[in-house]
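Late entry, evening session. Most of the bench is empty. Finally got around to the prediction I had been postponing all week. Sequence below, unchanged from the version circulated by S.P.
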Amino acid sequence: MIGRLERLYSFRHLLKQLVVKDIKLKYRRSFLGYVWSVLNPLLVMFVMLLVFSHMFRSDIENFPAYLIIGQTLFNFMSEATNQAIFSITGNAALLKKVYVPKYIFTLSKVTSSLVNLLFAMGAMVIVLVASKVPFSISALFVPVVLAELYLFSLGFGLFLAQGAVFFRDIQYIYSVLLTAWTYLTPLFYPMSLLPEAMQKGIRLCNPMYHYVTQFREAVMYQRLPGWDSVAYGFALALLFLGIGTWSFLKSQDRFILYL
């Protein structure tokens, strides 16, 4: 493990270049450029606000802030894992010619999505200020939540990336799974609307519930999240990171046969 970390550190400049390339490609030839990182989540939130405000707004305090927090965090996970799926197959030509640690491509995709998340949080700040959400010292807990979310997305991304090398249908299956996942995460509705049994299932099996809820606790409600939720969130993140890393390293030597 120490040897792998040292090897990753030796390729840190390549990782940086890959992240910068991904970010530049995303906004290349767009008129507003990086402004879209702020404008796009605001426009999506506005549309969802029009659709869902009459259904849930009376049950949720400060619905715009509630909505954009869930939307922003879930969009990061969705973008990171979707980009990770193609991180190996999309770099097949390079992997056949030059030796580099294969996981660095998946790592760069998830990291570039994290940078995009930081840009998108500008839109979140605008909504929080407009909604008159007061700043609290508990907001300093946000980096901890982002660390949980990043580790989970990286682990899940590594698992999807290695799977997509052998089974290209994963991208289609995952798109269906992601749609269901969206509706099984309380992004635009209160958890109280669901039956008790379903609430328990979501708390047990849905990592995104914990990350979104922790973020809302720290930012919207000005209190630290429960340590049981934080511990469980980290446990799920490390579990997925362990499974993803193990499956990736175990199968990476066979990638070249399927690319």
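Two things to note before I forget:
The longest helix spans residues 103-130.
The chain is about 75% helix and 0% strand.
Will write this up properly tomorrow.
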